[in-house]
C-alpha cells in the first residue's frame, strides 16, 4: 500500500523520487528510477539542519522544508514518526505539497513493514 501511495507522487510533474522514513532516519519505502538509491542521508541531513535552526531560534515545530533550485526537495513531517521526501527538478513544488496534503491521511496510517 505504501509503495502505491508513494507511486502517486511520480505522476506529478517534476517529481523523480518519493520516499518515506521514520523519525530515526530508517527508510520505510521508496519509489523512483530503477537502480537509483534514495537519498536517505541527504534527507536526514536536511531535516536535522532545519530542526536545529528551528529549535535554536525557538520557532516552534518543523512541519515542512522546501529546497528550490535546479534540484528541488520537499520534506514533510506527516506525523512525528513518518517523514516524506519528494525530490526532482523543474516542477511546481507547491503542487507537490498539495499532493502530500491530499494523501496525508493515508500516509499517516499506512502500516510499517
How would you characterize this protein structure?
This protein has 113 residues and is of the alpha+beta class. The chain has one domain: Beta-Lactamase, CATH 3.30.450.30. 37% of the residues lie in helices and 28% in strands. The chain is built from 3 helices and 5 strands, in the order H-E-E-H-E-E-E-H. The chain has helices at residues 2-9, 40-56, 93-109; strands at residues 15-22, 27-31, 64-67, 72-79, 82-88. Strands 2-1-5-4-3 form a 5-stranded antiparallel sheet, sandwiched between helices. A hairpin with a 4-residue loop joins strand 1 and strand 2 (27-31). The mean pLDDT is 88.
Helix content: 25-40%
Corresponding CATH superfamily = Dynein light chain 2a, cytoplasmic
Biggest β-sheet strands, sense, barrel: 5 strands, antiparallel
Number of domains: 1
Supply the CATH class: Alpha Beta
The CATH topology: Beta-Lactamase
Any descriptors?
single chain; 113 residues; alpha+beta; Beta-Lactamase; 5-stranded antiparallel β-sheet; 37% helix; globular
Element layout with pairings:
Blueprint lengths: L1 H8 L5 E8 L4 E5 L8 H17 L7 E4 L4 E8 L2 E7 L4 H17 L4
Antiparallel strand pairs: 1-2, 1-5, 3-4, 4-5
Amino acid at each position: 500500500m505504501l509503495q502505491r501511495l508513494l507511486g502517486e507522487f511520480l505522476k506529478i510533474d517534476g517529481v523523480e523520487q518519493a520516499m518515506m522514513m521514520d523519525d530515526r532516519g530508517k527508510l520505510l519505502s521508496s519509489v523512483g528510477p530503477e537502480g537509483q538509491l534514495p537519498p536517505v542521508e541527504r534527507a536526514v541531513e536536511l531535516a536535522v539542519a532545519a530542526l536545529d535552526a528551528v529549535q535554536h531560534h525557538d520557532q516552534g515545530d518543523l512541519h515542512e522544508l522546501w529546497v528550490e533550485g535546479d534540484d528541488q526537495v520537499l520534506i514533510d513531517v506527516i506525523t512525528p514518526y513518518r517523514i516524506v521526501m519528494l525530490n526532482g527538478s523543474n516542477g511546481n513544488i507547491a503542487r507537490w505539497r498539495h499532493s502530500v496534503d491530499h494523501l496525508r491521511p493515508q500516509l499517516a496510517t499506512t502500516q510499517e513493514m
